[in-house]
Design goal:
This protein is of the alpha/beta class and 143 residues long. It has a four-stranded parallel beta sheet with strand order 1-4-2-3, sandwiched between helices. Strand 2, helix 3 and strand 3 form a beta-alpha-beta unit. It is globular and about 35 Å long. The protein has one domain: 3-Layer(aba) Sandwich (Cobalt-precorrin-4 Transmethylase, domain 1).
Length: 143
C-alpha cells in the first residue's frame, strides 16, 4: 500500500499546501484508526456533507499512513487549480449519469487490487438536506 513517504511528487506538494490549512482550520480527533488495514487495498465509504469532506478525510488517512485515491465528479478535473491537483495526485474521475461511469468503478477496483485505498462517497454528491440523511446510496461502493 502506498504511504505518504512514497506518494508521487505532485501528491506531496498538494499535501504540503493543503495540510497546514487543515491544521489551522480543523480540530483533529481521529477515531477509528484501528479499523484501517495496514496492508492490502481497501475501500473507505463516507457520507459527503460538506465540500471539505474529501480534504478532511484525506487528511485523516494521510496522517495515518494511507495515500487515498478519491472518486470525484469529472467536472472537478477541468477546474484550473483543483483539476491539476486531482490529476497530478491520481484521483479517479467519475462521469456521472453516463455509460462511462463504470470506468471509474473499474479504475477504483484496479487500485484496490493494486493495494491502494479508494475513497467513495456512496451518495454520489453532497448531502444537502439533513432531513434526508442518509441519502440513497449508489452502486459504486458495493458493486
Amino acid at each position: 500500500m502506498p504511504t505518504p513517504a512514497r506518494a508521487n511528487r505532485a501528491y506531496r506538494r498538494v499535501a504540503a499546501v493543503v495540510r497546514p490549512v487543515l491544521f489551522a482550520t480543523t480540530r483533529r480527533d481521529w477515531r477509528g484508526v484501528e479499523n484501517l488495514p495496514r496492508e492490502g487495498g481497501f475501500i473507505v465509504a463516507a457520507n459527503h456533507v460538506t465540500q471539505a469532506d474529501p480534504l478532511t478525510l484525506g487528511h485523516f488517512l494521510w496522517d495515518n499512513g494511507v495515500v487515498p485515491r478519491i472518486l470525484a465528479k469529472a467536472s472537478l478535473f477541468t477546474a484550473p487549480v483543483v483539476g491539476a491537483a486531482l490529476r497530478g495526485t491520481g484521483q479517479i474521475p467519475v462521469q456521472r449519469n453516463s455509460s462511462a461511469a463504470g470506468q471509474s468503478l473499474d479504475a477504483g477496483a484496479r487500485a484496490v487490487r493494486d493495494g491502494e485505498c479508494v475513497v467513495v462517497f456512496p451518495e454520489g454528491t453532497l448531502t444537502r438536506e439533513p432531513d434526508m440523511w442518509p441519502m440513497q446510496g449508489k452502486t459504486g461502493v458495493a458493486r
